[in-house]
Design goal:
- The complex is a heterodimer of chains A (309) and B (620).
- Chain A has ten helices and ten strands.
- A six-stranded mixed beta sheet of chain A has the order 3-2-1-4-6-5, with helices on both faces. In chain A, strands 8-7-9-10 form a four-stranded antiparallel beta sheet, with no helix packed on it.
- The relative contact order of chain A is 0.15.
- Chain B has four domains: 212 residues, Rossmann fold; 83 residues, Beta Barrel (Elongation Factor Tu (Ef-tu), domain 3); 122 residues, Elongation Factor Tu (Ef-tu), domain 3 (Beta Barrel); 177 residues, P-loop containing nucleotide triphosphate hydrolases (Rossmann fold), CATH 3.40.50.
- Chain B has 16 helices and 27 strands.
- In chain B, a hairpin with a 3-residue loop joins strand 2 and strand 3.
- The chains are: A alpha/beta (309), B alpha/beta (620).
- At the A-B interface, helix 1, helix 2 and helix 3 of A face helix 2, helix 3, strand 2, strand 3 and helix 4 of B.
Chain lengths: 309, 620
Amino acid sequence: MEETTQVRTAAVELSDLDTLEAESIHVIREVVAEFEHPVMLFSGGKDSVLMLHLARKAFAPAPVPFPIMHVDTGHNFPEVIEFRDRVVAEHGLRLEVASVQELIDSGRIKVGHELESRNRHQTVALLEAIQGGGYDAVFGGGRRDEDKARAKERVLSFRDKFGQWDPKNQRPELWRLYNGRHRKGEHIRVFPISDWTELDVWRYLAREQVDLPPIYFAHEREVVEVEGLLMAVNEFFPLPDGAEVSRVTVRYRTVGDATATGAVRSAAVDYEAVIEETAVSRITERGATRGDDRFSEAAMEDRKKEGYF
Amino acid sequence: MSELLRIATAGSVDDGKSTLIGRLLHDTKSIFEDQLESIERTSEKRGDEQTDLALLTDGLRAEREQGITIDVAHRYFATPRRKFVIADTPGHIQYTRNMVTGASTANLALLLVDARKGVLEQTRRHALLSSLLRVPHLVLCVNKMDLVDYEEAIYDEIREEFTAFAAKLEITDLGFVPISALGGDNVVERSANMPWFDGQPLLGQLEDVHIASDRNLLDNRLAVQTVIRPMSAEHPDYRGYAGSVVGGIFKQGDEVMVLPSRRVSTINRIDTPNGAVAQAFPPMAVTMLLEDELDVSRGDMLCRPSNQPTASNRFEATICWFDETSSLRTGAPYQLKHTTRWISAEVEALRYRLDVDTLHRDLDVETLEVNDIGRVSLHTTSPLFFDEYRMNRSTGSFILVDPATDLTVAAGMIIGAGSEPAAAVADPAIAANITFHPSHLSREERWQALGAGGATIWMTGLSGSGKSTIATAVEHTLVSSGRPAYMLDGDNLRHGLNAGLGFSEADRAENVRRTGEVAKVLAEAGVVAIASLVSPYQAARDRVRAAHEEAEIPFYEVHVDTPLEECERRDPKGLYEKARSGEITDLTGVGSPYEAPSDPELRIDAGLEDAVRQILALLD
């Protein structure tokens, strides 16, 4: 305690990262205090890792007072699932898995073919799990810098009983006075890291030395280049006809459905190197790695309206 | 250290705001290539002559198609010195509420005018809203300088006009910059086209503006969000009050008071996300641990015992109406959120609507509609602990929610506690709504330090009876002997505290009430207050006595019982003569009654020396 004390007494100013941290914790505490059944989405991706880290800090030394939910497409990177289970065990969390595969197996989701991207189908699994669990607040790791549609999202975002977002009918959000009032069956999506950029996330995770799935750092992998994306060749992404496999040193900037998430060439093996690359990167993380978001100018807007996170 | 700066932008539809933001993002390398390519394609499809940087910020499909901006959008860029968050709000008239939303958290407002058009109504409206929301800094960008041949005179004219207008508002820090967003002149780099401009380019101004002092670091305020009690084997007794510091600097070892219970304890420890600290300041999120086990819960506020927020369930506020589907209903129930509390509230009265273009106050108004701004008085079911919005944007702000729809219908800024006329304060219905701030020092401690206790000697009697002469002598004797004393002279008080009060029965009663209150405060402080007032009405004097008895402060009523004939013979101020000649009508004893005390502590009808001795004897 004494050490920190000495560092902090000098000035009464907070750095940008400390400010973001404080603001996010404020939001998380507000929601936990006002809602009956919050749940936090956790994919093992860096944004959800950050969000969980902030939630742990918000209530320390007490445990995180809500369960986490993984919307599992069934198309996973094994390293991410391992990581997820390790985090759950380490921090004594309650994990709920909303399985897309189960919905496909029971016929409630129809798929064209087994290996198509399941990002869209996550919406169905998510909404069913929210309804089934009676959750009234769902924390998501969305950031406003990710996409133009997300730039207009509130920190607390109202969803009707069909889980849908109405961008023209959002509640005004002033000061830090959040209005999370809702009726039975409706819920609120909460985006505590709305104001963080990709670079902020990396700088903060590095500062805190937070553990991430290993695929976020440079490693060798068999990939194939498809429409400008470096796709890992595995059970979910079989080698397309005539394509050539090459062994490349890559890392992932985002973690999503393994059939739709591409890697980028990188030699960044640690946080410092990733930050350096991120600071000079000229392509958005979604543009660089997500086949589904590149589809159209309004791809994210349409999916958000349907209830996507 | 890199800081976070929040900017609210506003401007008319065509003055190039989106282009400017696009330019800031582009020139600080905050735009990614794929974003740029995407808007290049769209621009091409639309047949634009050059890539429209505005497309970067128009997020939703309807906006892109109609070429308008619907809602508040957030943009991010950073330089090595600062991280910037832009709340980009559309400028059309119907979107006052969006501007208010963006401005609520902004450190700086960025306003744009078109150099060809100059200061428009909308510019004035946005400046007014920024000042209303207390955005501490404002920068006016005179854009499209390329279209006026970079003419210095045009910039100067706009600058002068706006400065003159801004003088009418409460804008403390005002900056100007002539730019061309399209060409990037004076946005990030200094413009070669405007060598006459000796100020900084926009980005430099945004990086330099000093924001650390905008916070209130004097009035300690923390609203409790939640109580952290792990009750685990490792932390069996941990009990922390989690919340964000919104004012002042809390230090370990400081005394704190918890509202509304007013219990006092000491800060044992301040936990933060990064360990314990010696002091906490805005906007830190902390967990406070106190020495004593108090009953503290969400919605409670921590402050200093000697510096408390105002506590009242009636207050005045400026509100902006947000809801399109309903208008303000006075007397109807709303849910009010203030700090971390929800409370039932009603708008008791709509005082006026403010015309944001003319600053005219429309008193003849029944309701407020979407985008209207007005002054209201509010009543809550239990007292709110607030500061004026101008002193603290966190403890001075609130939102109203319609319980029927759950929508946020209005945002409010507190002006102060209910502003009833002073005389009405005696009204028990209102007095019940004003909570007292107990001082931390006890009376005993104060009196002990002085070596003597305070008391009030209330001298009543006709004009010319000798009250003031006796009072002066008593005061002199006490002070000479080292005992603090102070004479409150009725005539003297009428020049200041009681200026504006006349001689009607009601005004005389109020005169007595005020003087009685001042005497009580002096006595509380350890002074012997000697009030010298005609105070002709028994009921008014009895109220002063009752107030003293309630506060347990000695009160001695002294009747200077000099007969009217003798007073009239002395007539030191010539009042009786004027009264008899009809020049004044309501002199006590002549045109106005004097009710002699029925049971005073002392009745004086002797000479000065005896009178002083008798009064001093009362105090022993």
